Amino acid sequence: MKGLTIGALARAAGVKVETIRYYERRGLLRQPVRPESGYRRYPPETAKQVRFVKSAQGLGFSLREIQELLFLGSGTQADCSEVLALATHKIAEVEGKIQALEKIRSALGELASQCPREGSLSRCPIWERLESEAGGKEVR
């Protein structure tokens, strides 16, 4: 029998078997037909596809976006501009996250600089901020 078992595919791609199954459920990989023997066999190029998915995840692409990239790659009329558009959108998204994280860092830094470093929580500006934003309500 030719092809890779799911375990061999996972090893070749550097992932766990559950990752292969998850990608199949999400539609990122085609599940091969199960022959009478019961053991599916994956074409060797499937390992490259799994590594592609992992690489795209490493660049911050979501599985939905990766599905779009794979779709583009499967078409004969796909154009580099379409991949660039996805990457440009991802860059804008990352910039937004960076700005949000910088605001968080600034707010925490300001609160930390006001902290007396010891004593009761009632004197802790970090705790006070968390309490005030929680509405001071007790959860029971």
Walk me through what this model shows:
Helix 1 (6-13) packs across helix 3. The N and C termini lie far apart (61 Å). The protein contains six helices and no strands. By secondary structure, it is mainly alpha-helical. It is 62% helix and 0% strand.
Produce the secondary structure layout.
Blueprint: H1 6-13, H2 17-25, H3 45-58, H4 63-74, H5 80-114, H6 125-133
Helix pairs in contact: 1-3
CATH level 1 class label of the largest domain: Mainly Alpha
- The level of helicity is 55-70%
Number of domains: 2
The best one-word shape is elongated
Describe this structure in a few short sentences.
The protein is mainly α. Helix content is 62%, strand content 0%. It has helices at residues 6-13, 17-25, 45-58, 63-74, 80-114, 125-133.
List the keywords.
single chain; 0% strand; Multidrug-efflux Transporter Regulator, Chain: A, Domain 2; 140 residues; mainly alpha; elongated
